[in-house]
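Issue: ligand-bound run for zinc ion - logging full I/O for the record.

Environment: standard queue, default settings, no custom constraints.

Inputs:
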Amino acid sequence: MRPPLSIVWPWPLEVSAYLALGQHIEVGDHPCPGCRRRLGGWSGYWRWVRGPGTQRLWIRRGRCSRCLHSHALLPDFLLERRLDEVEVIGRGLALAVGGLAMGTVAEQVGVRMTTAREWRRRHQLRAPALAAALVALAVYLDPAAVLLATAGEATALEALGAAWQRARARFGERVPTVWRFWSLISGGQALGTNRSPPATRGFGAGWMAPSP
Ligand SMILES: [Zn+2]
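Outputs:
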């Protein structure tokens, strides 16, 4: 199996603090997803993020000296191949799934209707796999049964809420906000185009590691 191209890691601060660091961003140690050897050989690339404004940020890329694959280290406020901050995307999705018209959703979160529609379309396609992976994660965190009252797309959001609450109960403040958590546990693929289930291999995420 091909290792993931991106590794999502928890950025503990505001987006602006990340942007302010420019190319001096420190990403910490990350194991290669293929062989667990520590990534090295750092380089990086610029990409854009749209939150309140559109700004450029530096993404570090690490290379495994054994597998020779390189991996982008995405901060958890981003999703792979999505311009907008994950908080903006999540807020839009929650509004849309809650029944708000797409035009109003787009207006409320400040994106074009085509963008909001595309998030929704991807989420609808991913919802069954996301819901299943999130329920599995919730049960892994706390073996009590997860009772879901909704169906379809809303189930994926409900399961996200359940997994997030259990993560918070277990790991406290180290668990980021719900939408960053969504990015983290899906490896930035929550709205990805691959057909495989989202890898909740984020079990190795920083907040699950023992406290330093
Ligand atoms: Zn490797």
